[in-house]
Amino acid sequence: MSTPICDFVNKYIASSPVRMHMPGHKGKAMLGFEPYDLTEIDGADDLMAPDGIIAQSEAEASRLFGARTFYSCGGSTLCIQVMLHLISLYAAQCGKKPVVLAGRNAHKAFVNACALLDIGIEWIYPDDEQSYIACNITAQQISERLAGQNGRITAVYITSPDYLGNMQDIAAIARACHESGALLSVDNAHGAYLKFMPTPAHPMDLGADICCDSAHKTLGVITGGAYLHISVSAPAVLAERAKASFSVFGTSSPSYLILQSLDAANGTTEAFRNELRTFLPAADSLKAKLAAHGFELAGSEALKLTLKPKSFGYSGQDIAATLEAANIYPEFYDPDYIVLMLSPWHSECELNAVSRTLRSLPRRVPIVSAPPRMPRPERAISPREALLAAAEKVSLPRCLGRISAASAIGCPPAIPIVIMGERINFAAIACLEYYGIESCMVVK
Question: Is 49 in a helix, a strand, or coil?
Fold first, then answer.
């Protein structure tokens, strides 16, 4: 596939231009990338209103994903903000206030955007007790929650894959949404690669109306590169207003390095598809070896290796320390899980190092302690009211009975245990303490 953005930049560099424009480094290499770092000069196009090489590159990405695809230089956070703004515009077009039915393991970017846009949120909790990071949702749950709503719910919001590698049945959930007249929006930040699986499993292939991908998480794209995808069958207002929505939330100086990285990824997708196909058996083999050694695995996502180490006698922190001592750095860990993100660009030597390090650990007496039950605090005021209220930071014991003014959790995974506007109860205190949260912002 063509790479018009990269081609333009390479031609510009080759011409040895006098750079009387931003950025201030003028292309002089200090870290090495500066010659490639441009601004919106003639010919470079404008991300917020493209009609040249950026438009051509986004058209290439659209053909790859079978959707209307838009670039983001602000990661999936920017895409989530735009996605929710578009959902609000669609609700307004239908003469309704936007209300979103969302899985409780939504990223804080979702909560913050809903607060800013004054979008109503109704939460879906899992039927079974899991980590707050996971929220298994079934199509039947969606159908039951949407039944009798008379179209009040504008959209359903699902996180899949989640941070632990759990994947939802997007196809069935999409059918349930559409039967009730609701849009399906998906936070697919961890799943851009799913388009290139031997059997494509991307939300755009499974019936979602709109979704985001963090291209930098699983494709060969530098940090901050992401996609917003809109189905060709989605309401027209979503694609028509997408660029305008990006300009509301995004910077007017998007990174041209990220744009080149997204553009270059278009040209390497066939190679990535082939490398992924070759890599999948190696990933499965690594997981099988660890399971045979006695580790309990979680999640079904192909490119995540998630261990539940307590049954093997270790905490997630224990395993992380062992890996880091061997110069292997995991994506995430907490007391109950450790997550390693796999890639076709991992060498056999690197996979062997992971396997060797983990299998060097002897089985110990299982740790039987379980995480606290997932809290369900009552909503005292709206997220928007809480976000805009005067607030103060207080120690965790003093938070009891107070109203949260911010999403309380670290990053990663950036999934709030307590949502702004909720009253912090005993269960929430116990959960926050378990995950190492020592203080919270609360409404004064």
Answer: coil
Q: Which residues contact 388 (CB under 8 A, 6 or more apart)?
A: none
| CATH number, position 284 | 3.90.1150.150
- pLDDT one-digit tens code per residue, 389-404: 999 999 999 999 999 9
Q: pTM for the full model?
A: 0.96
Number of domains in the chain: 3
* Structural contact between residues 152 and 72, judged by C-beta atoms closer than 8 angstroms: no
Neighbours of 158 (CB within 10 A): 29
Helix/strand/coil percent split, the chain, to 5: 40, 15, 45
Phi, psi of 308 (to 5 degrees): -110, 85
Q: Are residues 319 and 254 in the same domain?
A: no
Residues 82 and 207 both lie in one domain: yes
Is the domain of 165 the same as that of 214?
yes
Q: What angle do CA 411, 413, 417 make, to 5 degrees?
A: 95
Q: In sequence order, which ranges of 252-377 are alpha helices (DSSP H)? A: 256-267, 269-293, 316-325, 348-359
Is residue 430 predicted with pLDDT exceeding 80? yes
Q: How far apart are CA 59 and CA 63, in angstroms?
A: 6
- Candidates 100, 110, 178; CA nearest to 139 is 178
What letter does residue 310 receive in the DSSP assignment?
G
Instruction: Give per-residue pLDDT as tens, 247-290.
Output: 999 999 999 999 999 999 999 999 999 999 999 999 999 999 99
Q: How far apart are the first and last CA of the chain?
A: 56
The Cα diameter of the chain in Å comes to 68
How is residue 197 annotated by DSSP? Answer: S
Same domain flag for 230 and 298? no
pLDDT tens-digit series, residues 33-66: 999 999 999 999 999 999 999 999 999 999 999 9
The predicted pLDDT at position 411 comes to 72
Range of the domain at 432: 383-443
Which pair of structure tokens corresponds to residue 341? 């993100």
Residues 6+ apart with CB under 8 A from 226: 71, 72, 73, 74, 75, 76, 78, 79, 189, 212, 213, 214, 215, 216
Point out the domain boundary residue: 302, 324, 359.
359
Residues 318 and 174 in one domain: no
